[in-house]
Amino acid sequence: MKKVRIEDAAGLVLAHDLTKIIPGEFKGPAFKKGYVIKKEDVEILKDMGKYHIYVLELNKGDIHENEAAERIARAIAGDNIYFSGPSEGKIELKAKKRGIVKINVEGLNKINEIDDIVVATIHTNTLVGEGQNLAATRIIPLVIKDEKIKKVEELGREYYNNIITVKALKPLRIGVVVVGTEVYEGRIKDKFLPVMEEKIKRYGCSLIGTKYSPDDTKLIENKIKSLIEKGADIVLTCGGMSVDADDVTPQAIRNAADRVVSYGIPAIPGNMLMLAYRGKIAIFGIPGSAIYVKNTSLDLLLPRVLAGETLTRKDMISYGHGGLCPGCKVCVFPDCPFGK
Questions:
Q1: Which of 155, 168, 199, 275 is deepest in the core (most CB within 10 A)?
Q2: What is the pLDDT of residues 306-334, one digit of tens each?
Q3: Same domain, residue pair 153 and 73
Q4: Has this prediction a pTM greater than 0.70?
C-alpha cells in the first residue's frame, strides 16, 4: 500500500473500505476495498474528510479484479450473451434472448481448476428468458497475475468462446394430431388440444392445423404426414401411447418417420413419450399425463427442438439424472430441479 493525496487518486485502487457516517441515518462503506477511484469521487471523499487515502500498488503483471472479471467474461461468452458490471469485482452474464442455455461443462471445469478463478453458472439446457442471469465470474483476491487470465482466454479459444451460450427459440409451425376413437366419435370431450394450444402459445409458436383420428395405425400415419405436407416443423401426436391393445400411436409414428430416437424417456411425468424424425421434422408421441400435469417430459424436449437441436437417444437417456419432477405445491418450472 501507499498513501496518496486524494487529488492524485483517480484511476488508483482503494486498499481498504472507506466508511461514511450520517448520524442517526447511515453508517457503512461508501467506497469498498478494491474500488477504482474516479475523478468525480474526489469531492465526495473530501466531504467525508478524506484528503489522503491508501491505494494498492499493482506490480508488473498484476491485474485488478474488475479487469480480470471483464476478460474472463469475454473469454467464456458465446452467442446471445451480454454482461452487467463489474460490481465489486463481479460480472454477471445474461441472456439477450429467450432460449436454451448451453454450458460446456468440461470447459467450465477446466477454467475453475485455475487457482483464484471463479465462474458459476445455472444448469445447462435450462429454458431462460431475456435478461435472465446465466452466470457470474470474479477472482478471489483483489489482484491476480495476468498469466492466469491468459490461461482462461486460451481455454476460451479452445472451446470457440462458447463456454456459455444461448440458443434462441424459433417461432416454428406446429401441427397436432389427437388420437382416440372415443374422442373421434364424440363420446368424450377432447382435453388434449387446449393443453397443446397453451404450450404452443407459451413457446411463441403457431398452430397450423389439428387432426383427429380414431385408433387406426394407417389413419394416424396419414394425418401426421398431411400436417407435414401442410408445412409443420413439428407434429405433436397426442394419445394412444400406452401398452393397451387399442393404443397404436407408436406404430403409426414409426411408419410416418424415417427414424425413431426413442419410445420412452427416463423422466416422470411423461415417461412414455416418443420422439422420431421425418427428415428434419420432429414427431412427438405424447402420453396422457400431459393433460393433467402442466410440465412433463415434453417440456424438457420441446424447447430444445425449438432452439434448433436435433435430439439423440443419448440426450434422452441423460434425463434419468434429474428427470423426476419433485411435484412442488407451487410449480416454478423451469427454475427447478426437474430435468437438470
A1: 275
A2: 999 999 999 999 999 999 999 999 999 99
A3: yes
A4: yes
